[in-house]
UniProtKB/TrEMBL annotation:
<feature type="domain" description="Peptidase M16 C-terminal">
    <location>
        <begin position="705"/>
        <end position="872"/>
    </location>
</feature>
<dbReference type="GO" id="GO:0006508">
    <property type="term" value="P:proteolysis"/>
</dbReference>
<dbReference type="InterPro" id="IPR050626">
    <property type="entry name" value="Peptidase_M16"/>
</dbReference>
<dbReference type="Pfam" id="PF00675">
    <property type="entry name" value="Peptidase_M16"/>
</dbReference>
<dbReference type="GO" id="GO:0046872">
    <property type="term" value="F:metal ion binding"/>
</dbReference>
<keyword id="KW-0645">Protease</keyword>
<keyword id="KW-0732">Signal</keyword>
<dbReference type="InterPro" id="IPR007863">
    <property type="entry name" value="Peptidase_M16_C"/>
</dbReference>
<keyword id="KW-0479">Metal-binding</keyword>
<keyword id="KW-0482">Metalloprotease</keyword>
<feature type="domain" description="Peptidase M16 N-terminal">
    <location>
        <begin position="49"/>
        <end position="177"/>
    </location>
</feature>
<dbReference type="GO" id="GO:0004222">
    <property type="term" value="F:metalloendopeptidase activity"/>
</dbReference>
<feature type="domain" description="Peptidase M16 C-terminal">
    <location>
        <begin position="209"/>
        <end position="396"/>
    </location>
</feature>
<dbReference type="InterPro" id="IPR011249">
    <property type="entry name" value="Metalloenz_LuxS/M16"/>
</dbReference>
<keyword id="KW-0378">Hydrolase</keyword>
<keyword id="KW-0862">Zinc</keyword>
<dbReference type="InterPro" id="IPR011765">
    <property type="entry name" value="Pept_M16_N"/>
</dbReference>
Length: 954
């Protein structure tokens, strides 16, 4: 496509609508936010530093590099990613595992707060939420950035030990979707490095490369002119810049440095068609891409770049709204569909693309392709309507307004991600104050014609078209050939299409306001500083005002009830209540019309029916609080049925059930949950036949019954609450909810989930393209639900994570990552479980599985390592301090205290500080004493060695 034409039209349009002062500067870079310290050191290193106290006394540190797998040669495939791993295995100032150990001692968990990733064109290392009270910690984090930049040790012994870890990471990732993607990239980038540089690399290289190859790659590409250190947090920017300058002064700009080239992506005159199938892929995906040149980096930094982003977001929003409306109809031509814009194949730095994607039913590739192309041609011929543009523009302006209103509470993580993208991809960082003023000034002036002209120009129809189909390879499913797919597309572009219909959305949610209720009493509670409002309809409301967010109010409401109250005849119906109760919309609006009616409002309300409780959750801005109250009122009084929307949902679910059968892990997880909970029918997953027995009208009747009586319900609100404004609205809407005080809330506690007692081993075999054994080990015990047990469980999970990282991952190279989860379940269950799961080589499955119990037995017999527990408790205290300034934390504590009488917030820190190694030892002993265990394993029929031996010679 002629992107230069788009740029020219766009620039002329901007000249027409911008004030003279801005119009003259539209091709000048936007100024950098004055709160940002931005610069370059003499050696070429870029730095971006900002003070931000959310969370307080914490900082994030990134070192971003414009270096990735695309720079590898064929004999280096995988070295960029391998090097990323080695950054955690010894540096000049932090030998061995000292880097990880130091950060864990200050409360940063490996994986959660300390991590990295490698992509085609970038590698980024991150330290998150490091404490800043001690200036020595700040200095040490900067020193880590320095070492990652230029002083990774790359010890030969450590390199060899890491080969096994990366091999297991490859095993974890090499599933059907990854294999289909790898094949697709090879075809989508013919004769191009992007087609053969997956960051994981090849195991032939990973297992065998000489140590010097990795060292040479590191020396060649890790250098300051390709690096940016980003520090955002509760720090003194002047100090950080000064210290950073000192620490990085010893790193010199290399002489005769290799050129950091960017791989160009070729145009294609005829469509490229790709069919990729695999036995483990779970769905059929049809994608149409329209490649285009990228916006020049220097232009991305200007007003024109800002507004082109605006245009792209508007277009994607409108297209997705159209697809959503189509999906809600029965017998829709696809199960799901959407559009987005970004790098070609999500990875190219030199080509962008407009992408249309559909999830097709089995054997319906043509039907989905035709539907996508019909909508594409409708856009190409007619563009968007004024009503569509108005909704999308209003919502986009609202999103900028929300960001502006919360500008003082933006998180460190949000800033560091923005600045990372700015360094790697270019763009602008003028600050939300500037961006909000720009969008308010420009958006109303940019005509629909401009958006339509640009989107039509994006759709080239013939040139630079790429068509892909990925799907399951199994009996009974056929796919077109690549030539047939191309011809299908060409024929589809000849369809006659009608213009989209112009429509005006009704935005008045309620025809008339409720008469309102009455307040029975208001009092200020000592506990958590909450205001208690009792309403005459039996509802109690608690409000806690905070300053943690400037423009947020969170809602949670609950009463006894739930699906436990229904008998066997409704066993299937109650399983889908939460999936379908909002499909029909509310009041006079179906689901799509409701979303349109809420244009320009930031509000969300959802209802859910659990086993023993009926719930409402929601959130809104301060301005949209009344809208949230109206949605709550309509949820209780006017749930809407939509048989067509349900039929469409049912068809999607049945297709999903059919499709996931191709992936053995999906079926395995369902089996585990069902067996673990003692074959309880409540847990049993629905199958295709079950959906034929579900009665949608009965489901909606159950949903209405659960919300027909608000008596006894407790509502909790936390956030920027103005009681003088909001309590009258609560009285008006929540006070008017239907109520029958003769019926007190109840539930059926006899109907509960209980864990299987005793021991059970389940072993399954299945042929897999990549040999793998997936191991699940679960132990459980009766355990009272109280704060001490919950905290001991959290600590134990973190300690076990460290144990298995040291033994299974690092010492044995037996797994890339070992997942550990645990929970103490509240009454009426009062049970606790620990689940350990990981994939490994089938040949080593028994050996690795034994290590799971070796670590548990060691804790039961000797207690955990004090070092592990100390690190864990530091991290838990750090998380607690951060949670104290989150609305969601206080919402949950209010709910727990006023529904269960448990004041955990008041005793949390004392309880946490009381935990000892003996507590963890006794905790695990109790599990071992009760001796309830479930082991499930799925293994491929062949080991990796056996599979390799049967491969034909190349």
């Amino acid at each position: 496509m002629n992107l230069r034409k788009v740029f020219l039209v766009f620039a002329l349009a901007l000249s027409a609508v911008l004030p003279v002062s801005l119009s003259a500067q539209q091709m000048q870079p936007l100024p950098i936010d004055t709160a940002v310290r931005y610069g370059k050191l003499p050696n070429g290193l870029t730095y971006i530093v900002r003070h931000n106290a959310n969370p307080q006394k914490r900082a994030n540190y990134y070192i971003a590099q414009t270096v990735g797998s695309i720079l590898e040669e064929d004999n280096q495939a995988g070295l960029a990613h391998f090097l990323e791993h080695m950054a955690f295995n010894g540096t000049k100032n932090f030998p061995g595992k000292n880097l990880i150990s130091f950060l864990e001692r200050i409360g940063c968990r490996f994986g959660a707060d300390l991590n990295a990733y490698t992509a085609f064109d970038e590698t980024v290392y991150t330290i998150m939420d490091a404490p800043t009270q001690d200036i020595n910690v700040v200095d040490s984090c900067l020193l880590i950035m320095h070492d990652w930049s230029n002083n990774i040790t790359l010890d030969g012994k450590e390199i060899d030990e890491e080969r096994g870890v990366i091999h297991e990471e490859w095993r974890t990732r090499d599933n059907g979707d990854m294999r289909a993607m790898t094949y697709t990239l090879e075809k989508a980038f013919p004769n191009n490095k992007y087609g053969k540089r997956m960051p994981i690399g090849t195991m032939e290289v990973v297992d065998n490369f000489p140590h010097e190859d990795l060292r040479a790659y590191y020396k060649k590409w890790y250098r300051p002119d390709q690096q940016c250190v980003i520090v955002v947090g509760d720090i003194d920017p002047d100090y950080v810049v000064k210290k950073l300058t000192e620490i990085f002064a010893d790193i010199k700009a290399p002489e005769n440095a290799a050129e950091r080239y960017y791989v160009e992506v070729e145009d294609n005159e005829e469509p490229i068609s790709i069919i990729a199938t695999d036995p483990e892929v779970t769905s059929t995906r049809v994608q149409i891409m329209y490649k285009r040149d990228i916006m020049p980096r220097e232009m991305k930094a200007t007003v024109a770049g800002f507004m082109l982003n605006y245009l792209n977001r508007i277009a994607s929003s409108i297209i997705n709204e159209r697809f959503m409306e189509m999906m809600m109809k029965p017998n829709a031509p696809f199960l799901q569909a959407g559009a987005y814009q970004g790098p070609y194949m999500t990875i190219a730095k030199t080509k962008d693309a407009l992408n249309f994607i559909a999830i097709a039913r089995e054997n319906e590739v043509k039907k989905s392709l035709d539907a996508l192309v019909a909508e594409i041609m409708r856009i190409k011929k007619f563009g968007f309507t004024a009503a569509e543009y108005d909704r999308a523009r209003t919502n986009l302006i609202k999103s900028f307004e929300n960001s502006y209103n919360e500008r003082g509470k933006r998180t460190n993580g949000s800033y560091t991600e923005e600045y990372k993208s700015f360094f790697i991809d270019g763009g602008y960082i003028p600050g939300i104050e500037t961006e909000y003023e720009m969008i308010k000034m420009m958006a109303p002036q940019l005509p629909l014609e401009l958006v339509n002209n640009a989107i039509k120009e994006y759709i080239s129809v013939d040139k630079n078209v790429v068509l892909t189909v990925t799907g399951p390879k199994k009996d009974g499913i056929t796919y077109p050939t690549e030539a047939e797919l191309t011809e299908m597309y060409k024929q589809a572009t000849k369809q006659d299409v009608e213009a989209p219909k112009e429509e005006v959305s009704d935005t008045n949610l309620m025809e008339r306001a409720p008469k309102g209720g009455k307040i029975a009493g208001v009092k200020k509670n000592q506990m958590y500083g909450a205001t208690e409002v009792k309403l005459k309809n039996g509802v109690t409301v608690y409000l806690k005002t905070t300053d943690y967010k400037d423009d947020e109010v969170q809602l949670y409401a609950v009463k006894k009830g739930g699906s436990s109250l229904y008998g066997e005849k409704d066993a299937l119906n109650v399983k889908v209540v939460n999936d379908v109760l909002d499909l029909g919309g509310l009041g006079k609006f179906d689901a799509i019309a409701l979303q349109k009616a809420l244009t320009g409002r930031s509000v969300d309300v959802s209802a859910s029916v659990d086993l023993h409780e009926d719930k409402i959750s929601g959130s809104s801005t301060v301005k949209d609080f009344e809208t949230m109250m109206q949605l709550v009122y309509l949820t209780f009084t006017d749930m809407r049925e939509d048989q067509d929307a349900y039929e469409a949902h049912k068809q999607r679910q049945v297709e999903r059930i059919k499709s996931v059968k191709t992936n053995p892990l999906y079926s395995l997880r369902d089996t585990i949950a069902y067996v673990f909970y003692n074959n309880n029918p409540i847990i049993k997953p629905l199958n295709e036949e079950d959906y034929e027995k579900i009665d949608y009208k009965r489901v909606m009747q159950i949903a209405r019954e659960r919300y027909a009586n608000a008596n006894g319900m407790q509502f909790f609100f936390v956030g920027n609450i103005d009681e003088a404004t909001m309590i009258p609205l609560i009285e008006k809407y929540i006070g008017a909810l239907p109520s029958n005080k003769k019926q007190t809330p109840k539930t059926n506690e006899d109907k509960k989930l209980t864990l299987r007692k005793g021991k059970m081993d389940l072993f399954y075999k299945k042929d897999m393209d990549t040999p793998m054994a997936q191991i699940y080990d679960m132990i459980h015990a009766q355990m009272p639900y109280n704060l001490k047990n919950v905290l001991v469980m959290d600590a134990l999970v973190a300690v076990l994570d460290q144990c298995y990282t040291a033994s299974i991952r690092e010492a044995e190279g037996g797994a890339y990552s070992v997942g550990v989860t645990g929970e103490v379940q509240f009454d009426p269950m009062n049970e606790a479980y620990i689940l350990v799961n990981f994939p490994t080589d089938p040949a080593r499955a028994d050996e690795m599985n034994k290590l799971v119990y070796v670590e548990l037995d060691n804790i039961a017999n000797n207690g955990p390592k004090k070092e592990y527990l100390d690190k864990t408790l530091v991290n838990m205290r750090k998380s607690y301090e951060e949670n104290l300034r989150k609305n969601a934390y206080w919402l949950y504590n209010l709910k727990r205290y006023y529904t269960r009488g448990a004041d955990w917030a008041g005793i949390y820190l004392d309880t946490l500080n009381s935990i000892t190694t003996t507590d963890l030892q006794n905790f695990v002993k109790e599990f071992m004493k009760q001796d309830n265990r479930l082991q499930v394993r799925l293994s491929s029929t062949k080991t990796e060695a056996e599979k390799a031996a049967n491969q034909p010679a190349k």
